[in-house]
Each structure stands twice: as C-alpha cells, then as structure tokens.
Amino acid sequence: MTQEAVTSKVDLVRTQLLNLIDQTEEGTALPSERILAARFQVARMTLRRAMDDLAFDGLIVRQHGRGVFTARPKVAGRLAVSSFSEDTRRRGLTPGTRVIAFRKGRADRNVARQLRIPVNDFAYFYTRLRLADGVPMALQHCTLVADAVPDLTEEDLTGSLYESLERRYGVKINGATVDLEAVMPDARSAELLTIPVSQPCIQLRGFGLDQTGRVVEIGRSLFRGDRYRLSSSFSRGDLGPRRARPNAR
Questions:
Q1: Which CATH number fits the domain 3-70, given the four candidates 3.90.1150.10, 3.40.50.410, 2.40.50.140, 1.10.10.10?
Q2: Which end of the chain, C or N, has fewer beta carbons within 10 A?
Q3: Which GO terms describe its biological process (predicted)?
Q4: Contact 125/103 with Cβ under 8 angstroms?
C-alpha cells in the first residue's frame, strides 16, 4: 500500500472517530481499539495513527489502565497583546470572570520596584478566575498602578479589563513583556481551576505597558495545561530575545 493510500485511510478513520465523538458527552469512554478497528474495518495501527492525531488536538484523552475518553478541544490563545476575553470570543466561546479578591493597598518595596513607583504609593491588587463557556481556564493574580486608574472598582474586573481601562480611563495596554514556564499548581489554585495538583499548568509572568510606555500592570497568570495552549508567530528578523523598555514614571 502506498503512503498516500495509508494517509487517506487514516484521514477517513479520523473523520469516523470525530463523528463518534460528536455523538458522545465529554468524558465518555470510547470502545476498545479492537472493537473500533473491527467497526471501521482497518488495521489497529491505522486506528492508532488516527487516534494520535485526535489526542494531539485535545479531542481524546488516554488514561493508562482505563482506556480512551472524549474531551473538549483546548482553547487556543495567542502570545500577543490581547485580552483573555478577546481570545475566548475569537474561538466562538463565551468568556466569564469570577473575582476572587480585590483590594486597594500600598505598594511594598518589591511591588514598587516592578511598577516603577515610590514605595507606599497605592496600587490595586486582585485575583480573577477566567472561564470559557463556564469552564475554569486561568487564574490571574495582578497589580495595577492606582493613579492610572484611580476609581477602579470590582465591577471593572468582571469583564475584559483591557476594554474597561481604555473605555473608562483612556489607558491602552500597547505592549508587554512575558516569561512563560510550565509549573505545578498549589492546592488552592488547583481547587479553583478544578484540576488535580498533579496537572501541569502554563504560567505567564510579566508586565504591561500603556501607550506612553509606562508600566501600569504586573501579574502572574496560571493556565490549565489540559485545556489551554498558547501560540505565536515569528519571522526571521525576530531571532534573539527582545525585551520592552518601560519608561520611568
């Protein structure tokens, strides 16, 4: 059999599996490989290749010793200056927010250094749980310079903060520097994200710059590794790290 014929058969099996997944609820166990191979009249190796594709796309989950289960596809986010709400709506999902904590307080030495403000200046500290179609996706811990958004309220945090900052305060987040790494969640974060503490997460830590180049936001976001993926595009001219240079206050 030619390579083209093998690829065509894998694609056909993949389509048949997708039809089967569409008819089941999330978390449903699929029939065994032996049963599926017999149903689709293909070799088990062909079936495995099709299932590998679906697993890569996040549509099925293999659990050792238990079998294969259906899953929702991962939400894709971009490594760009865009909000969680924008990315979620772009994928045809409904964004949601649950405010876990919100307060106005004075910046200690560490926070002041990161925000480029004097020690004891006011800042807003908040934690938000971000959802897509009601499913927890990310946990955000952020701090905003208070004099940039003097009348910030908890209500401003219930939707797209970037949209609210631009509409109410004329503050537009135009740039950001972000570090990305894989981490394990602590017990509280895992509870809020409804995942086990053994589930790896994607952590983004960095700062946001307004249209004048001033640092107005610092934060750390924890994304579920099983439900979220991040993508970016690069060109040859982007070789080598480039860091934003925030303006002093």
A1: 1.10.10.10
A2: N
A3: negative regulation of DNA-templated transcription
A4: yes
| C-alpha torsion 153→154→160→165, nearest 10 | 20
- Tokens representing 80? 């760009």
Confidence of residue 244 (pLDDT cuts 50, 70, 90): very low
Q: Is the pLDDT of residue 104 over 70?
A: yes
161-196 pLDDT tens trace: 888 888 888 988 888 888 888 999 999 999 999 999
Class of domain 75-232: alpha beta
**CB-CB contact of 116 with 249 (8 Å):** yes
If we measure between CA atoms, which residue out of 205, 60, 56 comes closest to residue 138? 205
Which class for 201: exposed (0-12), middle (13-18), buried (19 or more C-beta within 10 A)?
buried
Q: Token pair 């089941």 is at which residue?
A: 24
* CA–CA separation, 11 and 6 (whole Å): 9
- How far is 162 from 173, CA to CA, in rounded Å? 7
